[in-house]
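Repro:
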Amino acid sequence: MFLDPLYIVMIIPTLALSLYAQVKVKSSFTRFSRVPTSRGVTGAQAARIILDAAGVRGVAIERAHGFLSDHYDPRSRVLRLSEQVYSGDSLASVGVAAHEAGHAIQHARGYAALRLRSALVPISTLGSNLAWPLIIIGFLLMAKSLIAAGIVFFSLAVLFQVVTLPVEFNASSRALEALPASGILSAAEMEGARKVLNGAALTYVAAAAAAIVQLLYFLIRAGFLGGRDE
């Protein structure tokens, strides 16, 4: 499959986009991690200020290990920030922290897309684990029923990637509204935070695009699209 010219032609643009997104997010974060905020607010402090201003209580803020390992855990209501974001007082640090605070606010407000994504987690995990073995075995044995089952499972993983997009965009939108509103960043400083968040958003777009293209490839090669089976 990976030597199929059609697969190569379809997947190369998404691979290029993924590589560009990774370079973009790392370069943006590195660049603006060197620019301190005028108020000297750290990422952890920024997240707490934003949560308090939104009236969201009971969310713990903890350190996490790893580069850009920042995330919000809705099950334990814990916002975990990587060391550089937690302790850093840069535009990049407060931007990322505000984004994760945006997820905590989504959870507190019952944001529909976040609820849907959370519900899809176990289904998506199951789909990811079963899809590839079924599809590969199906193509090897020319068993269309196995291929179809694999495509159904893979579609669940694709759906998760697609639903992730509005969740991430909305969290960034909330962050970009909260940072100046709470006085954490001035209007002049907002451009740096915006570039960091836009770079991060591009990684989710690239992941969704790659998943959709792979799904389309499977559908074409299985004969479900294009009217023929090769």
